[in-house]
Amino acid sequence: MTTKRVAVMKELLSFTGIEPDRLRLEWVSAAEGPKFAQAISEFTSRIKTLGPSRLKVAA
Fold first, then answer.
1. H-type helices in the chain, by residue range?
2. Which segments of the chain have a pLDDT < 50?
3. pTM higher than 0.70
């Protein structure tokens, strides 16, 4: 169910002009600290590669 929701959300992001790669689903248990750290590092690197979002929110 979650996998389907993430897929739909990625489509919605794309439709609104936001890169779908800004959303990631990773299954990690509490006992998998190194896997969690790796997933976060990879995701952070990907977001940095994408750069700032083209979407601006008025403050």
1. 2-15, 33-50
2. none
3. yes
